[in-house]
RNA sequence: GGCGGCGUAGCCAAGUGGUAAGGCAGAGGUCUGCAAAACCUCCAUCAUCGGUUCAACUCCGAUCGCCGCCUCCA
């Protein structure tokens, strides 16, 4: 059973979809007037993972993430730069899609634009006016906050207390300072659409109500976004929708803020780090690890140190997967083959533990922890194998590998590429090469002299001749040196391999290489 | 001032009414031609003070500290 923390009730609740077997998620996307920063990426990742997990749990899931492409801030930016607001919106929409794409996770199922939802927005405003919840004034339309009894139920605010600190603005048509615009009369040069109240554009908030209801229908399952949107944005979304007689989201999920130097990362504070800059320096898997090793509701500090930690953690996973592959590929060299039911059981237990964590309010941090626990247990087992205390169980290792890669898949983290790069000396090609090498050792120095003395030249000669991967060949060559106790040659080759971007490890089954990340 | 959240080892971070996952770093050891990786051992009584309970880090209250929202904000 999946349980989700609902901001509306302030507790974890069993997830009960509106439609059996289906789930609909609406996540607040960006207003496109700037490049997305790390903070913006957190909900993008969080709700993509939620969708992934719900699908794994056999729910046909739809994720809708809006793009608000008409808004005061866009217009302000356009004015400041002397440009057209539409051009600004288009530019940053493209940048948003390009930047988030680099995370390498599937896009939302629907990414509707506010500007493509104008008729629905106008309809909604008409309904609000008809019901007495909104009123037109000077070409704008305002929502009458005090007309909606439930106002404040999400943010736990009471209207009378809000009244105290409300911003004094100079919108002459407002009947109550708490009221907010659902439709704004357009000034000349601003993007505008015909409406019953004259030319204008949507107010902030209304577009999300309209898009959520349009794509997911009334009473949809989950609405997500950053914690900072609870008030007023989400509160207003609820008011607008429900005052119009349309039940809104059942479960509200809010991710915690990303902080930088102890403060919320925000453009206004000036402590932002752009997503694209981070992705220039760290591979997507590391960035995902960074996000997912903290629970989505907790605040998360941003720093290169934290990214480096995520990188180190990911490297352990990568190495573990690589080591498993290496052992499996070199199983023939194992001293003792057999079954280890215990390891198989642990793999299964880890799979279940992972699922339990994920079911519990998307506890990705705990879930990743279970994966690492499995890695530790596997290494412990492998050590026992090396000491001859227990047999090597290839199938059990494959089970572990499957649990690891499938679980990472649920988190949208790609199986570490390093694993695939590890070239075991005992592959089919490698064994053929080994036969050739051992049978024709005399050729090696000649090949070495033929090139400029670097291992990859030799490798090229032999790889071409033997049809095997170069790294694999270098491993064989090094094994040869080591068997012959030609330490200086072996060490030099290792240096060269390291220069070429490989980590080199000696094992009882031969030289193992891991491509450095 | 109102509303909400957080405070777990050097750092990061899960977690349960019955004496604390995991990652990074550190110390010692094993393995290794050297190295790397790995393994083993060591490293917290959960901000403070009270209360409830047979038993609390986990429930309640207070205190201190930090953060978010109340204005644009993921």
In short:
With 517 residues, this protein is α/β, with parallel strands linked by helices. The chain contains 19 helices and 15 strands.
Name of the CATH first level of the largest domain: Alpha Beta
Q: What share of the residues lie within helices?
A: 40-55%
Tell me the β content.
5-15%
- The neighbouring-strand order within the major sheet is 4-3-9-10
Largest sheet: number of strands, sense, barrel closure: 4 strands, parallel
The number of domains: 3
CATH fold naming of the largest domain: Rossmann fold
The mean pLDDT is 86
> What is the structural class?
alpha/beta
Radius of gyration: 29 Å
Question: Could you give the count of β-strands?
Answer: 15
Description:
It is a single chain. Helix 2 packs across helix 3, helix 10 packs antiparallel against helix 13 and helix 15 crosses helix 18. This protein is of the alpha/beta class and about 525 residues long. The protein has 3 domains: about 280 residues, HUPs (Rossmann fold, 3-Layer(aba) Sandwich), CATH 3.40.50.620; about 120 residues; about 90 residues. About 45% of the residues are buried. About 10% of the residues have low confidence. The two termini are about 40 Å apart. Strands 4-3-9-10 form a 4-stranded parallel beta sheet, with helices on both faces. It has a 4-stranded antiparallel beta sheet with strand order 5-6-7-8, covered by helices on one side. The protein has a 3-stranded mixed beta sheet with strand order 12-11-13, covered by helices on one side. It has 19 helices and 15 strands. It binds one RNA strand of 74 nucleotides through helix 1, helix 5, strand 9, helix 7 and strand 12.
